[in-house]
Amino acid sequence: MPSRLIIARPVPPAVLDRARQEFDVRFLGDDATSPDALLAQLATHEAEALLLTGAVRLDAAMIASLPPSLRIAGSIGVGYDHIDVAAAEAHGLMVTNTPDVLTDCTADMAMLLLLAACRRGYEYEAIMRAGWRQKFGMPDKLGMRVSGQTLGIVGMGRIGRAMAQRARGFGMRILYHNRHRLPADLEAGAEYFPTLHAMLPQCRCLSLHAPGGAASENLIDAAALALLPEGAVLVNVARGTLVDEEALLAALTSGRLFAAGLDVFRNEPAFDRRFAALPNVFLTPHMGSATVETRDAMGFRALDNIAAVCAGRPAVDPLWGVA
Ligand code: 8YV
User: Fold this and answer.
1) Predicted pLDDT at 289
2) What pTM did the predictor assign?
3) From the alpha carbon of 75, which atom of ligand 1 is closest?
4) Which of 2, 75, 218, 323 is the most exposed place for a label (fewest CB within 10 A)?
């Protein structure tokens, strides 16, 4: 008998196909996003597994209300700030994420944002689409050089390191702040700063790769932004909660920051539209992992986790129960 699985959100066709081959699937698509509707579906399907995305919040109240049949919630995505992992552990519910498979594409997006922000990507695009008819003079509309610049990386996990690897290709000097210093082979020449504030004055470019959650809330606030050199550029592909958006808007408006490249926001999708009114911001709608290859791989990785737990094996990417 195949295990019973609820798929709470739309997934790529290849992921849905595989899920249907291996499990007794009830696919909710766009229909049942309210917590009560999802709970009802889980109960009536007597689901053993739930496939979810960051759009589905598993807080302590939700976890306490889950039907006893449920053994695993496999989340598609590496970040898990939408899941109360301690509550899941107390409840005996395995929760998993999908690391590794999205590392490269998310770092590619960070590099895209860095390049576009430094080189006025939004403004140049807008000029062309408005029907460019007048050449610019030598001193007009100049960007900021990327090659050879100093890049600070906040959070030197898999994605932060992949960003460093790309930036090295641009001849950048790499600094990083992380809870722990990395071994030399993972540092790959990057310079470690135990405190964020000690690193910031040297970072003409700053890229955020730390997880969301209480520990990183407003890490980049007015005080942190004030420590960056004049004309710095900020990139965020991690979580909007890392940044005090009022302070960022002020720094971008005053020109203290040269530009920002933002893929994530405090409120998604209802992001603060004042960002969209600024010419020195390059914006994308939380699409760091959004390629055909990576979204398939993320879905498959979540199914690998679900298949393992349903078969009584350990999860591939458990979020609790590991040392
Ligand atoms: C996903 C992400 O698009 O992996 C993450 O943490 O933010 C994105 O890659 C999102 O989580 C979808 O569930």
Assistant:
1) 98
2) 0.97
3) 13
4) 323
